[in-house]
């Protein structure tokens, strides 16, 4: 039932399909796949994020290619023009992430198992929200997704910050789907004066010296109190299972530890 030869152009469908025990269906993955570790060892790498090896993808004879975001639009178009079935998700919110992971379960014939998994995430969200009611003062948080230009967090990251017990200093930008629309200036961060800094620079390591030596930020709470943290992009910028399994718990560890 369902497609038997799936290529995943991003990490989150790969992780979800493994969680569902249907990994035998996957024939190709992204070179950026980190989760689960087994996938990196078992599956053929066929794509980066924006581009893909069309020849290799076609040689694997997939009956479904799953991708994410408008950024993969051209790659999707190229594959469709070559006769492949392509499904591109474009989730931005936590609710959309949960819905899309359920859709993946439906596609591989594991609707009930997917529902159990996603219901577990929903229950955990409710638990976090209940626990947050007892926090007397929530820390203000600046989440930085890129360095030059300075880009603040996408919608699901802003929502994750809230679930972790923090307040996103730039939550008014969270609904802006494109990264270019979430560009801010160093002075904006100074004026917001966050208690905590979290960096997860998509695709590269955070430069700690760049953060600590930013002239505009020397008076901020996060520098004065040394509350600077780095997160692995695979657990916070991947809109899938990792967000619930490790991403939000890690944020809570940062925020709720004095």
From TrEMBL:
* Pfam families, per database record: Peripla_BP_2
Q: What is the lineage of its organism?
A: Bacteria, Pseudomonadati, Spirochaetota, Spirochaetia, Leptospirales
Protein name, entry field = Putative high affinity Fe3+ transporter
Q: Which domain of life is it from?
A: Bacteria
Q: Which organism is it from?
A: Leptospira biflexa serovar Patoc (strain Patoc 1 / ATCC 23582 / Paris)
- Occurrences of domain Fe/B12 periplasmic-binding (ranges): 5-258
């Amino acid at each position: 039932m369902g497609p038997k030869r799936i290529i995943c152009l991003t990490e989150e469908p790969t992780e979800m399909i493994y969680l569902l025990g249907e990994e035998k269906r996957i024939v190709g993955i992204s070179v950026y796949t980190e989760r689960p570790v087994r996938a990196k060892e078992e599956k053929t790498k066929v794509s980066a994020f924006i581009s893909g090896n069309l020849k290799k993808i076609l040689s694997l004879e997939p009956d479904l290619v799953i991708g994410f975001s408008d950024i993969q639009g051209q790659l999707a178009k190229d594959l469709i023009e070559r006769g492949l079935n392509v499904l591109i998700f474009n989730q931005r919110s936590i609710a959309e992430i949960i819905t899309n992971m359920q859709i993946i379960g439906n596609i591989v014939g594991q609707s009930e198992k997917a529902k159990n998994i996603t219901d577990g995430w929903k229950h955990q969200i409710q638990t976090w929200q209940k626990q947050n009611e007892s926090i007397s003062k929530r820390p203000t948080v600046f989440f930085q997704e890129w360095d030059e230009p300075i880009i603040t967090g996408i919608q699901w990251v802003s929502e994750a910050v809230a679930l972790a017990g923090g307040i996103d200093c730039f939550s008014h930008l969270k609904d802006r789907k494109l990264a270019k629309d979430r560009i801010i200036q160093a002075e904006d961060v100074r004026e917001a004066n966050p208690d905590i800094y979290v960096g997860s620079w998509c695709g590269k390591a955070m430069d700690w010296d760049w953060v600590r030596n930013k002239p505009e930020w020397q008076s901020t709470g996060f520098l004065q109190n040394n509350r600077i943290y780095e997160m692995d992009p695979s657990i916070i910028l991947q809109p899938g299972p990792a967000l619930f399994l490790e991403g939000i718990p890690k944020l809570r560890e940062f925020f709720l530890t004095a």
